[in-house]
Amino acid sequence: VELVESGGGLVQAGDSLRLSCVDSGSTLSRYAMAWFRQAPGKDRIFLAAISWNKITTYTDSVKGRFTISRDNANNTVYLQMNSLEPKDTAVYYCAAARSFSLVQAGQIEYWGQGTQVTVSS
Questions:
Q1: Run of H or E including 76
Q2: Whole-number Å distance between alpha carbons of 30 and 55
Q3: Which of 23, 28, 34, 89 has its CA 20 to 30 A from that of 51?
Q4: Would you say 28 and 77 are in contact if contact means Cβ atoms under 8 Å apart?
Q5: Cα 116 from chain centroid (whole Å)
């Protein structure tokens, strides 16, 4: 599994971004996938997860604003982020684990390198 994120950038408050995460090893469909983020000086935190059969879960702070989805045929998972706020500024990481329960427990097996999202006020 090799996860590569893209889609980050500098946006203004209220804008939207869609992050993508591609598994160059073409095995993404076998894994539960998740997105995390890490703001400067803070711990990495869980945002959202999706099972192989597209069951989703979100942390409360992004419910209603962020949507996780996956395209197993193209080995890609997405994070659609709407109504972005300066507090969403962070490095966003894609993650994979062999089961949804492992993801929910924070037992991640694979990480991407991260993509920077900066939201200006």
A1: strand 76-81
A2: 14
A3: 89
A4: yes
A5: 12
**Residue corresponding to tokens 């427990």:** 105
pLDDT in tens, 50-105: 999 999 999 999 999 999 999 999 999 999 999 999 999 999 999 999 998 899 88
Q: How far is CA 107 from CA 16, 66, 89, 93, in A?
A: 29, 22, 24, 14
Number of helices followed by number of strands (H, E) in the chain: 1, 11
Strands 66-71 and 9-12: unpaired
Supply the pLDDT for residue 4.
Answer: 95
**Which two tokens mark 44?**
């990495």
Gap between the Cα atoms of 117 and 106, Å rounded: 22
Burial label, 25 (beta-carbon count in 10 A; 0-12, 13-18, 19+): exposed
Type of residue at 102: L
Long-range contacts, stretch 63-69, CB < 8 angstroms, 24+ apart = 66/35, 68/33, 68/34, 68/35
Using alpha carbons only, what angle is made at residue 106 by residues 16 and 11, rounded to the nearest 5 degrees? 15
Amino acid at 48: A
